[in-house]
Amino acid sequence: MLTFLRLIRIAFVMYRYGLDELAVSSIRQPWTTRVLAVLRFGRRLDTPRGARLRLALETLGPIFVKFGQVLSTRRDLIPADIADELARLQDRVPPFDSELAVECVRRGLGRHPDELFAHFERQPVASASIAQVHFAVLHDGREVAVKVLRPNMLPVIDKDLRLLKAFARLIERVSPDGRRLKPREVVAEFDKYLHDELDLLREAANCSQLRRNFSPDGPRADLLIVPEVMWDYCSSSIFTMERMRGIPVNHVARLREAGIDLKKLARDGVEIFFTQMFADGFFHADMHPGNIYVSDRPESLGRYIALDFGIVGSLSEFDKNYLAQNFLAFFRRDYRQVARLHIESGWVPPHTREEELEGAIRACCEPYFDRPLAEISLGQVLMRLFQTSRRFHVEIQPQLVLLQKTLLNIEGLGRELDPSLDLWKTAKPYLERWMNERIGFAALRNGIRFESQQWAQMLPQIPRLIHHRLSEPDRSEAILGELRRLRGAQEQGNRLLAAVAGVLAAAIAVALWALTR
């Protein structure tokens, strides 16, 4: 019943903002003119279509807002006016009341903000689908950003997730690709990450982990800045971190005015992505422009700043090795290796012919090599690969859905910064270096260094274990005797089974003879 009522709500919002008219107007057929006349009868749809779509998504709630955020980064797939409006969803969702935010801080941290902070700004500086951010100053003078969770979020999200799960079950039943696409597993993965995002202590822990991976004192300090977590001012509904200053990554004109090298910035973005994915297996999975800034301070000019750590992804060692070998094989145009990896991993049925899969992958990817990013649409490549995967019954891996989403975000950012960026040539040297570290002499040296930490405990035990093994009585004769008894019992059982089968066969023969007389 709740799902049915939510469907009615969605249909009402679509009608209210004229999304039905927007969908029909995009169809280039003669009959659409008459349908549009019927749909527009009695309604005034003077507001621009992009604004209507944005308002509808805001009205429907956080899951739909997140969908709009992802869509806003794909300017190659949607018209510019719609992309501009959807971009407002990244950090300009209507905020909730400031006094309510103050009450949330008081409940979350146990004291009034005016007592906790030397100064707490009532007016939020940014507002997103899950939370909004207020600037504040600690009593020791440090400037911080306080993220406050929107109240009563869980019931709204659970309603939409029930609806998504119903859609997933329906897809599995009616679509021939339903079982292969694993829609229920994908929705379950989305459910997990959304509920994780509602726990701001988990987000603070994600921020702290990413800061360690890109430590200010480490070798990656010149790539990414991650704010420090103020743990004394955090709870499940409040997240306080160091205040960051910079320029949103999609404000290209401001970046140029600040003297930032956009080509280097685009290359650094690719390196950050592959470093997180392969070196750490832990990556920021919500990289839309509202969450990524660029420092304009002289001491850190041109360095990325990461914000909003509610959605992160992680990869197992198997996933990292599999993806790295696939990427490297793609960059080397070794499509036979790509096909072999798919078969060995179990992503395609074992009876798949390797040469057929190789030819299909080559037809998908070969046209896109040696082209600048401006002429490549990763969305189109993925669509062609999806059509190929349907033919070969490739199983979609739910744990990689976040990675696919992040890859699309990276492409959208790269297009705005440097459309001439050659994604393949930029990533290939990094992947080759990483693979050499994983399977070359360096990998052997690192493995020995890691395992040697355990040898200090095991080496002293070796003489005792050898003496214990050598001093044990010889049990080989007893084992051989037991094996002979087992063989004898098995042979006796086989003879009994053969006798029973003979008796049954004779009984059946007699019965058939009697029936035919």
From TrEMBL:
SUPFAM superfamilies listed in its UniProt record: Protein kinase-like (PK-like) (SSF56112)
Ranges where the Protein kinase domain occurs: 119-456
Keywords linked to the UniProt accession: ATP-binding, Cell inner membrane, Cell membrane, Kinase, Membrane, Nucleotide-binding, Transferase, Transmembrane, Transmembrane helix, Ubiquinone, Ubiquinone biosynthesis
Parts of the chain that traverse the membrane: 496-515
Pathway membership: Cofactor biosynthesis; ubiquinone biosynthesis [regulation]
InterPro entries noted in UniProt: ABC1_dom, Kinase-like_dom_sf, Prot_kinase_dom, UbiB, UbiB_bact, UbiB_kinase
Keyword Cell membrane attributed: yes
Domain of life from the UniProt record: Bacteria
Keyword Ribonucleoprotein: no
Pfam families cross-referenced by the UniProt entry: ABC1
Family statement: Belongs to the protein kinase superfamily. ADCK protein kinase family.
Entries under PANTHER family matching the protein: CHAPERONE-ACTIVITY OF BC1 COMPLEX CABC1 -RELATED (PTHR10566), PROTEIN ACTIVITY OF BC1 COMPLEX KINASE 7, CHLOROPLASTIC (PTHR10566:SF113)
Name used for this protein in its record: Ubiquinone biosynthesis regulatory protein kinase UbiB
Species this chain originates from: Pigmentiphaga soli
